[in-house]
From TrEMBL, chain A:
Any one of the GO BP annotations: purine nucleobase catabolic process
Origin organism lineage: Bacteria, Pseudomonadati, Pseudomonadota, Alphaproteobacteria, Hyphomicrobiales
Classification via InterPro entries: Amidohydro_3, D-aminoacylase_insert_dom_sf, DHOase/Allantoinase_Hydrolase, Metal-dep_hydrolase_composite, Metal_Hydrolase
GO molecular-function terms, A-Z: allantoinase activity; hydrolase activity, acting on carbon-nitrogen (but not peptide) bonds, in linear amides
PANTHER family associated with the record: ALLANTOINASE
NCBIfam families, A to Z: PRK09061.1 (NF006560)
Protein name: Amidohydrolase 3 domain-containing protein
TrEMBL record, chain B:
Organism per entry: Methylobacterium nonmethylotrophicum
Keywords for this protein: Chaperone, Hydrolase, Nucleotide-binding
Pfam families: cobW, CobW_C
Keyword Manganese: no
Protein name (Swiss-Prot/TrEMBL): GTP-binding protein
Entry similarity comment: Belongs to the SIMIBI class G3E GTPase family. ZNG1 subfamily.
GO molecular function: hydrolase activity; nucleotide binding
SMART domains given in the database record: CobW_C
């Protein structure tokens, strides 16, 4: 006897390619069957008119608590992973989550930066964005290359995190730009030996050399080649700026040579300056103003340039070249949309939110379980609406990708990225018998994000049912408040 | 309704807090709220800003982008939700910070829609520069000055005339004198915010700032167009005008998107275009503000007139 049959929905499974009306039977937290006449069930839930898909897997979620889980549940997420910052010590973090109770499945990479803080300073801090901020009191971990002894200590601590089941190594390199390549190379060799991916927020974000985004990607690709490690690039959209097309070309070339380089993106416009020179590059506006391009870009990226005098001299010759244009119209401008598309639609790339914690007016992270979230709790809208925004705009409105391709970027692709090293992920991100009953049922016609800067805690709309391990977190569009079905996603713990 | 933001940058002790206090004391009819970006956990600057405690909110984790973003959003939201809401927000950055990162965060389209960045002003300490000319070579100092749309030269009364002349000359290598102001010279709010305080709902954005009324110091030129402009030619015109202007503001429609009016702002050499709803019968309406004597009205009008009408691509087609 099945526990539940979801009957009559449009079942879409990116792995098998199935997209059709079918029933889905669930038993003991697993999918028991897909098809017609699946046998008796304790409960039959009609889902006619809804899409039935694997729950979304978010590779990049910093919230990691009940409140953050619930907002992401309405975004269709059933597994929420902290892979970029990571955590350390890993075992303690998993214990704490289990003790606190979670709504969504959870997991984390080994937090290299926290191992670094521990190895290079005397600070004790928690594994979170806020904890990293507090550790800036003594910034040696951020600014300095590690000595040989410190490197050995960092590697040992990271290895311990992997042994405790960390899902890979998080490299938020931008927060510790002082870290040297020898240290990173040791850690990547470790990742390659253990067979886990690494997750990088690249060290540099600029469109000009030195320390450009392209330099950072090239270094990352080099590490993939020289160590054999799987290098995953976090939020490819936000760190590539105007060089996203070239950056994508470099990644595709690396992939074509067999290097394990992958990307993720979130579907929000960049926070960076958009300059006139780029705007002029739009084929629709051929009147491009010749020289001065580089100097404009220099200003645009806020880069600390040494040749200020040269730029001032240039200003005399060509004053127009030095006006810095912020063109904040991502919705209407074809060029900007095209740039965002390069990262969001990157073939084989995942959608991942980079969801940030919910902050209270006094600056503390909201850790309560009030629902709806308190009005004064604030986060970036992407913490509430990444996946529904992607499916609404790219799949439904613009039809830039088919539904099944769009869903693959939210489900199968992130699962496959992890499954070689984390066997539990082989049972997520797809709909087939034996896989986890992590399932989202949504109304494609009305699915939408609703959060904005003034109202970040507006949940997305359109997710009618969300099952995590077979247990309802959202039922008929409403939160099941007592639900805490989230379980750890963890690599096997070393004996 | 959006609430404009002014960002105050500058070295530790340069006089940022004095400038912020001057804004709060003489807000030019605006309800101004202040945000203070402390360095570390110590609330030094917030203590100094004793003048109007309820208008001040602290940013705590000032330095790195993820925590900065969260802190910034939290603090801005807190200000926006006040009743009554502020008309304008001033953010005092940490003296140890390059303003580029906070500027980048403020240009996130999500944040910009609610709290558009209007002016970045960098406060420069004349006494400090007179004593330590090597500051001109300091990377952080240069980044702060480069990041400012305008510079305010503070503590000029603490420097004798010859030293001050030398400081001005050195500073001019880093920021054009037309974009540099002595601290007590005029009401800071009118210099830093482009519009009048409390514009009534629905009013077209291109209003004469009160600044322009100080006719002995500044002059203004109005420009209107009946037909949409060519964007590349408008950008070229602004490029020619910018070295002669302090700021410009108004709305513009472009021939490639005639139904999508854009709000245009220029301060110093930084221009912003964002969609706006307010228009009226005109296709463009701009006000240009310059220091008295800097702007040739006829040339300015001719440059902008040249941007009106179909672009070359349309003409050739």
């Amino acid at each position: 006897m099945h526990d539940l049959v979801l009957s009559g929905g449009r079942v879409v499974d990116p792995e098998s390619g199935f997209d059709g009306i079918a029933d889905l039977a669930l038993a003991d937290g697993k999918i028991a069957g897909i098809g017609r006449d699946l046998g008796p069930a304790r409960r039959v839930l009609p889902v006619d008119g809804l899409v039935v898909a694997p729950g979304f897997i978010d590779l990049h979620a910093h919230g990691q608590c009940v409140a953050a889980d619930r907002m992401q549940a309405f975004d269709g997420v059933t597994t929420s992973l902290e892979l970029e910052l990571g955590v350390w010590p890993v075992a303690r973090w998993y214990d704490e989550q289990a003790h606190a109770g979670r709504v969504l499945h959870y997991g984390a990479a080994t937090g290299w930066v926290f191992a670094r803080i521990a190895a290079m300073t005397a600070q004790q801090t928690e594994s979170s964005i806020a904890g990293m901020g507090r550790a800036m009191q003594d910034r040696r971990w951020a600014d300095h290359a590690a000595s040989a002894a410190e490197t050995a200590d960092i590697v040992a601590r990271v290895r311990a995190g992997l042994d405790q089941g960390g899902l890979g190594i998080g490299f938020p390199n931008a927060y510790a730009p002082g870290a040297g390549v020898k240290e990173l190379s040791e850690l990547c060799s470790l990742a390659a030996r253990v067979g886990t991916p690494t997750f990088t927020h690249v060290a540099y974000m600029s469109n000009i050399d030195p320390l450009s985004s392209v330099e950072a990607y090239t270094r990352l690709i080099g590490l993939a080649g020289s160590t054999g490690a799987h290098m995953h690039i976090c939020h490819f959209n936000s760190t590539s700026l105007q060089d996203v097309e070239r950056s994508a070309e470099l990644v595709r070339n690396a992939q074509a040579q067999g290097l394990k380089v992958t990307v993720e993106a979130y579907p929000y416009g960049t926070g960076s300056t958009v300059v006139g020179a780029v705007f002029f590059a739009d084929p629709a506006f051929p009147e491009r103003t010749g020289g001065g391009y580089a100097s404009v870009e220099t200003l645009a990226t806020g880069h600390r340039f040494a040749d200020r005098d040269e730029i001032l001299a240039a200003q005399e010759d060509d004053p127009g070249a030095l006006v810095l244009w912020h063109f904040l119209d991502t919705a209407a401008n074809e060029r900007h949309r095209a740039l965002l598309d390069v990262s969001v639609l990157f073939p084989g790339g995942a959608i991942a939110s980079d969801a940030v914690p919910w902050l209270m007016p006094d600056g503390t992270t909201y850790a309560g379980d009030a629902w709806p979230l308190p009005d004064e709790a604030v986060s970036h809208p992407r913490s509430s609406g990444t996946f529904t925004r992607f499916l609404r705009e790219w799949v439904r409105e613009r039809q830039a990708v088919s539904l099944i391709e769009g869903l693959a970027k939210c489900t199968l692709i992130p699962a496959q990225l992890l499954e070689a090293s984390t066997p539990a992920m082989r049972e997520k991100g797809r709909l087939k018998a034996g896989c986890d009953a992590d399932i989202v049922c949504f109304d494609l016609a009305t699915l939408t994000d609703r959060a904005d800067f003034r109202h970040p805690n507006r949940p997305s709309e359109g997710v009618r049912h969300l099952l995590v391990g077979g247990e309802a977190v959202i039922a008929d569009g409403a939160l099941v408040r007592e639900a805490r079905p989230g379980r750890p996603v963890r690599r096997p713990v070393a004996a | 309704m959006s609430v404009p933001v002014v960002l105050v940058a500058g070295f530790l002790g340069a006089g940022k807090t004095t400038l912020v206090n001057a804004l709060l004391r003489d807000p030019g009819g605006r309800r101004i709220a202040a945000l203070v970006n402390d360095f570390g956990a110590i609330d030094v600057d917030a203590d100094l800003l004793g003048l109007s405690n309820d208008g001040v909110v602290s940013l705590r984790n000032g330095c790195i982008c993820c925590s900065l973003q969260g802190d910034l959003m939290r603090s801005l939201t807190r200000l926006l939700r006040r009743d009554p809401a502020p008309d304008a927000i001033v953010i005092e950055t940490s003296g140890a910070a390059d303003p580029a990162e906070i500027v980048r965060q403020l240009l996130d389209p999500v944040i910009f829609a609610a709290t558009p960045l209007e002016t970045v002003v960098t406060v420069v300490d004349a006494r400090h520069l007179a004593d330590r000319p090597d500051l001109f070579e300091d990377g952080l100092w240069r980044a702060q000055v480069a990041g400012g749309d305008l510079c305010v030269l503070a503590k000029t009364d603490l420097v004798d005339a010859s030293d001050l002349a030398r400081v001005r000359a050195d500073l001019a290598r880093h920021k054009p004198p037309r974009l540099t102001f002595d601290a007590p010279a005029l009401p800071a709010a009118d210099l830093l915010f482009s519009g009048e305080g409390r514009p009534p709902e629905g009013r077209a954005p291109a209003r004469l700032p009160r600044l322009a009324a100080a006719a002995d110091l500044f002059e203004s030129v109005s420009f209107t167009a009946q037909r949409p402009l060519s964007l590349p030619r408008f950008q070229a015109a602004v490029g020619r005008l910018a070295p002669r202007l302090l700021r410009a503001k108004g709305f513009v429609t472009f021939d490639h998107q005639p139904d999508r009016p854009m709000l245009f702002q220029l301060v110093g050499t930084r221009a912003t275009l964002v969609p706006t709803a307010v228009t009226g019968d005109l296709a463009a309406r701009l006000v240009l503000i310059a220091r008295a004597g800097d702007l040739d009205r006829d040339r300015a009008a001719a440059w902008l007139d040249a941007a009106v009408g179909p672009g070359d691509e349309a003409r050739s087609g």
